Amino acid sequence: MADTTRRDFLTTSAAVAAAAAVARAFAQTPAGSGQFYERGAVRIRYLDTGGSGFPLLVIPGGGLNSTIAGLVSSHPFNPIEEFKGEFRVITSDLRNANAGESTGPLEVERPWDAYTDDHIGLMDHLRIDKFMALGFCIGGPFIWNLLERAPSRVVAAVAAQPSGFRPEQPELFYNNNMTGWGPELVKRRPEISMETVERFLTRMYKTNADFVFTVTRDFVRQCQTPVLVLPDDVPAHPYAVAMETVMLAPKSEVSIYPWKEPPERIPIAVRQIRSFLRGHRPT
């Protein structure tokens, strides 16, 4: 009983601390920058740390439940705290993440591009032309899509523990989201049916599924944007795909591996990210 009580206390304390950290992060949003931007039926919750540093777009991990809060509570390090001192860090809740506040339609025929529209739209809203990008997990495929769609705007990018297609588990992302994302979304948004969710996820993760989902190997071979990759090796973050992008991209760099275990290695990885961003920051 004592152990159970202690576990409950620690869990509650961690949740309270994470919520407080997110609240502090939002409290630092400069007056006048706003917390939402709207584009038609899309409404995106974002955090802009302001300042005069070069813009850094951070895309949280967590799959289709990617949120700003996740950066504080579930990532190997908090990029807001690490980089806000010298970069203008900008991040947002992914459209329709269950724990977030960004909303919009499910664009069944173009799921990846719809999310990229939101990322580019946020930078347009903030009147930012050129920027760097750091993406975790699902942020990996988003990074590659940004590099293909806005090559003149993204001056350098970091893909940390990037998602990718695993041939031995071809329906991993589809199944995870059909059980862990879709049902909760339908509860919150009764105008969306599970049939629509199924079509959306089929297009996103099963139609032409390969590699990094969003771009081809030929694109990566030709991409001239500097890219730093921090590989992982769990079912949703295949090491083989991460390293294939490193081998293909002509201006790629790679971190030590593993970089998250033991935890003492994480500051080394953060230091490499900072050095990479500084090295490619326009003067």
Structural features, described:
The chain is of the alpha/beta class and 283 residues long. It has one domain (34-277): Alpha/Beta hydrolase fold, catalytic domain (Rossmann fold), CATH 3.40.50. It has helices spanning 2-27, 68-73, 79-83, 111-125, 139-149, 172-180, 182-188, 194-205, 217-222, 239-248, 266-280; strands spanning 36-39, 42-48, 54-59, 87-92, 131-136, 154-160, 227-230, 252-254. The chain has an eight-stranded mixed β-sheet, with helices on both faces. Helix 10 links the parallel strand 7 (227-230) and strand 8 (252-254). Helix 4 (111-125) crosses helix 5 and helix 6 (172-180) packs antiparallel against helix 8 (194-205). The longest helix has 26 residues, at 2-27.
Query: What is the CATH topology?
Result: Rossmann fold
Class inferred from helices and paired strands: alpha/beta
Radius of gyration: 18 Å
Helical amount:
40-55%
Query: Can you tell me the CATH architecture?
Result: 3-Layer(aba) Sandwich
Q: Please tally the helical runs, counting DSSP H or I stretches of 4 or more residues.
A: 11
The termini sit apart by 59 Å
Major sheet description = 8 strands, mixed
Q: How do the strands line up in the largest sheet?
A: 1-2-4-3-5-6-7-8
Mean pLDDT: 90
CATH homologous superfamily designation: Alpha/Beta hydrolase fold, catalytic domain
Low-pLDDT segments, ≥5 res: 1-34
Fraction of residues in β-strands = 15-25%
DSSP summary, beta strand count: 8
Number of spatially distinct domains: 1
Shape summary: globular
Please report the first level of CATH classification, the CATH class: Alpha Beta
- The succession of helices and strands, N to C, reads HEEEHHEHEHEHHHHEHEH
